[in-house]
Amino acid sequence: MCKSFHVIAAFLFVVAFSAPAWSQAHIKVIKISVTNPSDVQRNAEDVVLSIPVLKKIAPDFTPAAVIITTSGAATLAEDAATLETQELPSQVDDLDGDHKADELAFQIDLKPHQTRIVSICYGDEPTVLRLRNDYPQRTDAAFNLKFDGLAWESERNAWRIYFDARNAIDLYGKRRPTLQLKLYGTPDYAYHDESPEGRDIYDVADALGIGAVGAWVDGKVVKISDVKERKWRIISAGPVRTIVELEYDGWAVAGKSVTLRSRMTQWAGERGFTHEIFTDNSADGLTFVTGLHRNPSIAPMFSAAQRAADVTSLATWGEQVVIPGVNKHTSIPGENLGLALLTISPAKLISEDPTVNLVQITLADHHASWYVMAAWDQEGTNRRVGYGNSKEMGDAASSYVLPPDGIATQSAFVDTVKEQAGRMRVPATVTMLSQTSAPQSAPPDTLVTSAKKAIPQAIDLLRAEIDATAKIWEPILYAAPAGTITYGKGPGYFTEGSNSTGEWKSQQGYYWTGSFWMAELWRMYAHTKDEKYRRWAELWSAPLFGQEMLQNHDTGFLYYYSDSLGYNLTHAPAQRESALRAAQRLSDMYNPVTHLIASWQVNGDDTIIDTMMNLQLLFWASKETHDAKWQDIALQHALRASDWLVRPDGSVIQSVHYNPGDTRQSFPMGGGAANATSVRTPVPNNAAPGEKVFTHTHQGFAADTSWARGTAWALYGFTVAYAETHEPKMLETAQRVADFVVANLPEDGVPWYDFGDEGVHFRNRDTSAAAIIAAGLLRLSEVATDKVRARKYREQGERITQSLIDHYLTPVGANDSTPPGVLRHGSSTRPNDGALIYGQYYLLEALLWLDERAKTK
Predict the structure, then answer these.
(1) pLDDT tens per residue, range 281-298
(2) Contact at 8 Å (CB) between 97 and 233?
(3) Which among 352, 5, 465, 375 has a CA at the least distance from the CA of 157?
């Protein structure tokens, strides 16, 4: 389907968007809205934004580092609540050749009368380029004497203009929707011959061609032939549009020497292009024309504009596809081609020329434009599509051919011309919503006015949530038959909850997160000495007894936060024995060749940063048994994790794959419990036993960004490792991560789900990561040997904790209807957004830490 005649829409400035500035934001956002004023669907509406206008809004706007995103939101309020955006391919163009950006272009799908909010995200170049996708090349341009001059194309059609006295525009039709100019320019390639790709399908002969420009002088067409100098340039050839230009100096016509520029703009996916001409005073009094080749057997369809700002159109449909071969002039019977010209400029049909259906063009301020389009009924008859061969799963490649998607009838072509005329007549409206640029905002419900909460008050809120949760879930756990609850089966455990109701979602089995609920109960028991918390903790811990050797690395999470914490308070032998069995399981997964605990199974080839937290169980076991072997394993793992998973700047890698000792060449990419049976991806490598092969992420934005919760695990985990071992490298690593975190937190101290994605692709904040960071910083403040650093870490831990309880822990504001004690806006895996049981726990841990130290001052 043809798309709209490109329009630089007028910006309607509205003071409708503002957001608090972040001290450490790498990316800022300008908000606009794009509206379809018509009652028909507009796919891939063309939008052009003026860079100078954007710089009036944001003087620091960086055209070279931009990402355009959108959502289904029609208002700023809806947009603020959006969690996942759609990236729109875009490009920046320098129109005048001064090496400075002039326009920003993109396309957007619009339903009838739909308004969509668009975010123009820009900022630090490395950050933006790391986030920006690779856009497929959907337009192209080339100058090649093999096809006689300058050419441009989309996947639908390719066009060329002869760089000589003919100065006519010719057409290549495409059976396959690909870019083909490079193929046409290949030495010895016969682009006139029949091909499954496409070919030259039109006979220009001596005529003006399809939409070329000429002059009407004394009842005749004068082409741009007698010229002192012709110049050409390709202004852009990108994923969104291609712009090419010809300049004619000293065109001898009607006794004048005229200077004229002719610019063609081809948008992705479109069957046509915009042709613009620019002149100066040398062309005053000259009548300009364009047109389509006249075929005696095809009656032209002409629709004159009836009012100002209306569209004049000239179209032909019929047998005007030349037979294959060089210098062939005969049309193929039964094969049809539609051609059309559309212009908003006042125009009239000139019928006197015997070879061309002419349209007279009126210039305004020495400028005019028209739209040229073509539709071959064989278009898309070879839509071969590749299937499989995904980047991570390694599927075998295949292909299939989709049904043709060309325009096969005259009525369909007429409808397409009318649709194009509608886009030109009433283009999309672009409204500027930002008065200034700003970072992407935190969740709206965190921005309401709210009284500051005291630490004891926040603890009481969490206690209220714990009591309410136990009341609901205790009967569910009691009702489960004995022995029926495992890692992935049985009721009574939960991980994710609702931001609005606070209700926990049921899940099958205790999962890796099951012990954090028990940890809350044990902490509350220690804080209050209320026996109900001990009873509940023991109730939920019981199903885990005896299943220690069935776990992966998360046996550390499961049994440290249930058995170890419980045993420290109760000294119950069963808890001690269970915790030590779990420690043995964790040590069984340690590989002395790699110096790492594999995350998913014995002799595994993947370790994730989360495992740093599971080392707490080994440190506990070493102290409990007075056996150094547990601590030695933990330290060896921590040292290697520091080398492989923490970058020099303190950012953190989530996952590393390595040769565990058998020189394997394929690796599972899924992670988690399903890892052993997931499809394995071939990764040819020459890594020696114990050497790294590659890194990646399961839950962050990309392998080269820093997933927030993983970064928090690292901060906390290396802090514990230093506190237990006093190994200097552990302190250095913990501080390096802490400094990265503090330098890259948003203003309210709650990170995005990934430090690299500041609300561009996913707008998830992660309060669970913030709570872990706060708890880790507070711990680090007690072991850091540098007093200045220690004070900074303490202050930042307190700041983050206070922000969490003031803006994210319910109630927030006077009208908050969510039950008390719910820590909103955790992100398990984006775009999930809700309460998380481990966020609840680590916030409680940080609060109790602060409360206890306040009492001892």
Answers:
(1) 999 999 999 999 888 899
(2) yes
(3) 375
